[in-house]
Amino acid sequence: MTCFDSAGPLDSQLGCSMASGGESMTALRAPGRPKDLEKRGAILDAAQTLFAERGIDGAPIEAIAARSGVSKVTVYGHFGDKASIFHALVQRENERFTERLAAVTQSEGTMEARLMQLGETVISMMLEPCHLALDRIVALEAQRNPEAGRRFYDNGPGLLLAHMQAVLAEGQARQEIGPGDPALMARDLMSLWFGFQAIQQRFCGGCLPTEDELLHRVTHAVQLLQRAYPVA
Question: What is the C-alpha separation between 90 and 117, in angstroms, rounded?
Fold first, then answer.
């Protein structure tokens, strides 16, 4: 299992340093990459860490600049204020999620195989410490900015739910699963996939599931769904 020390520095544990467009900071430091793009990514990484540690209100621009190794002027040059930084973080994670989802939505095969691949890919991403950290940040900010929360949901869990519903509807047409509402089936399956362990991971941290544990969770949930909606 991959475990995280709650007493250690958060920025060393998030493990998802990403620049805009879904590129890693390692890639951005390669020769020939524009420095301003590298700085933008560093600012976003620093802001995400500080927002998770202190909340948006508790993370001044000065702290973000210091953590990212740039000047305040540079931060303001890329983002006018903290609200713009927050929106950029949401957009970056949505793009990362969409790219990961797109890689598996083009797959072919049986309904069961497609759901298995989808579950393994998406669950592993949504349980990553960096995603969970941003999830908590967005949940807090959504109380005063509901539109931000809705945008994060629509381009993340909502997008996943819509694709699952389509896969299940196609499975019904091929008689791979019994009659029922595909939308309800998709919600049931998502609940089974994330379940209690996801709640525990979200609030308590700790260990991420191994590949074998993840496969077992995905397989068990898909099999339960198939038993709940048997083919006549």
Answer: 25
Domain boundaries, the chain: 7-228
The CATH topology of domain 7-228 is Tetracycline Repressor; domain 2 (1.10.357)
What b/e string do you get for 43-52 counting C-beta neighbours within 10 Å, with b at 16 or more? bbbbbbbbbb
For 181-191, how does the pLDDT look when each residue is reduced to its tens digit (9 = 90+)?
A: 999 999 999 99
Helices (H), 174-210: 182-204
Q: How much of the chain, in percent, has pLDDT values that exceed 90?
A: 50
- What is the DSSP secondary-structure string of 30-82? STT--HHHHHHHHHHHHHHHHHHHH-STT--HHHHHHHHTS-HHHHHHH-SSH
- Strand, coil or helix: what is 5? coil
Q: What is the pTM assigned to this prediction?
A: 0.75
The answer on pLDDT for 148 being more than 50 is yes
* Amino acid at residue number 94: N
Residue with the two structure tokens 């083009």 = 106
Length of the chain: 232
As a whole number of angstroms, the distance between CA 156 and CA 180 comes to 25
Whole-number pLDDT of residue 180: 95
Summarised one tens digit per residue, pLDDT across range 51-79 is: 989 989 999 999 999 999 999 999 999 99
